[in-house]
């Protein structure tokens, strides 16, 4: 199981906690240098130019369905996919998966929902894909265990790199530096 303990650094009096302390000191030093020199945004923009075209809930639903149909045909259906501006990226999660249970005619019926933080409306497509893949993997594996991360890597071979780069991007946004 992959454990994340958070590397904390202070910029302008605010605690930032997107980066894992499991990273090498050399890598953390490189990131801190990019932050101090205000070049983190430039590095990310060069690697991930532009944003995606999935800005509406309908487009996000179709994008998610396409990924689900490609990799998880036998998984339970997804009833709702949407951007959610109530997900607080700084304090909570980047995406949520929920199973809403309702009673219908004396039977209990579960409906799966995926919600993605609104900040990803204007993100590079690979970052959105990483979040959607993560939430789709929860349809099969509820816990963040080895099987969960293997499934994420099956759906997106660059999953771990994209997760790290997404953390860098969120760090850049939290510092008030220009978006990609």
TrEMBL record:
<feature type="domain" description="YgjP-like metallopeptidase">
    <location>
        <begin position="106"/>
        <end position="162"/>
    </location>
</feature>
<keyword id="KW-0378">Hydrolase</keyword>
<dbReference type="GO" id="GO:0016787">
    <property type="term" value="F:hydrolase activity"/>
</dbReference>
<dbReference type="Pfam" id="PF01863">
    <property type="entry name" value="YgjP-like"/>
</dbReference>
<dbReference type="InterPro" id="IPR053136">
    <property type="entry name" value="UTP_pyrophosphatase-like"/>
</dbReference>
<protein>
    <submittedName>
        <fullName>Metal dependent hydrolase</fullName>
    </submittedName>
</protein>
<dbReference type="InterPro" id="IPR002725">
    <property type="entry name" value="YgjP-like_metallopeptidase"/>
</dbReference>
């Amino acid at each position: 199981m992959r454990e994340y303990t958070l590397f904390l650094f202070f910029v302008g009096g605010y605690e930032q906690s997107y980066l894992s302390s499991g990273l090498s000191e050399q890598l953390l030093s490189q990131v801190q240098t990019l932050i101090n020199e205000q070049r983190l945004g430039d590095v990310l923009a060069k690697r991930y130019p532009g944003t995606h075209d999935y800005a509406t809930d309908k487009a996000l639903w179709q994008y998610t369905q396409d990924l689900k149909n490609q990799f998880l045909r036998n998984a339970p259906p997804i009833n709702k996919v949407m951007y959610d501006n109530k997900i607080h990226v700084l304090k909570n999660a980047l995406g949520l998966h929920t199973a809403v249970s309702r009673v219908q005619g004396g039977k209990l019926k579960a409906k799966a929902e995926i919600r993605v933080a609104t900040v990803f409306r204007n993100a590079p497509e690979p970052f959105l894909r990483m979040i959607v893949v993560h939430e789709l993997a929860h349809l099969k594996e509820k816990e963040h265990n080895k099987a969960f991360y293997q499934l994420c890597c099956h759906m997106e071979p660059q999953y771990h790199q994209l997760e790290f780069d997404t953390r860098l991007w969120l760090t850049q946004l939290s510092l008030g530096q220009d978006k990609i």
